[in-house]
Design brief:
By secondary structure, this protein is an alpha+beta fold. The protein contains 2 helices and 5 strands; from the N terminus they run ααβββββ.
Length: about 150
């Protein structure tokens, strides 16, 4: 009878119960954290793609007005803010070797990138350049999933 009263008055958790909860939280974190970091990095890469798409549109407008692509990115009428996690390279002549009919622009990832390293995203007058973009080798974070 004395043992039953002691069991009814018991408050708190046993060490085994706490250990089980900690193990469950650890297993959930082991699966959840990498997926979370991958999705965060993918959204940062998507920002680079959006910026480069805006730059491409602005370059096309410049080419239509002036007959040549603009070499200075700051002179373009880009309707998109500069990416926070990437350095913007300089516009250079593309495959033809002349800014009159081709251009290329590279964004390079800077800072901590969840273990993916410093990758690049390259756009040309034809759009996304999968051949020269190093993000192409990281399909986990490539917004195009290629």
């Amino acid at each position: 009878m004395h043992y039953m009263n002691a069991a009814k008055n018991r408050k708190g958790f046993t060490l085994v119960e706490l250990a089980v909860v900690i193990v469950i939280i650890g297993v959930l974190a082991a699966f959840g954290v990498p997926r979370f970091l991958k999705s965060v990095e993918r959204s940062k890469a998507a920002e680079a793609f959006s910026y480069l798409a805006a730059a491409r549109s602005a370059e096309e407008r410049s080419q239509a007005r002036n007959g040549t692509y603009e070499s200075d990115i700051t002179k373009l009428d880009i309707q998109f803010s500069t990416p926070k996690y990437f350095t913007v390279g300089t516009v250079s002549a593309g495959a033809s070797g002349s800014l009159e009919d081709s251009w290329t622009l590279t964004l390079t990832r800077v800072g901590a990138s969840s273990g993916y390293g410093a990758y690049t995203v390259v756009f040309t007058n034809d759009g996304y350049d999968s051949t020269n973009s190093t993000i192409q080798a990281i399909p986990d974070i490539n917004p195009l999933g290629q």
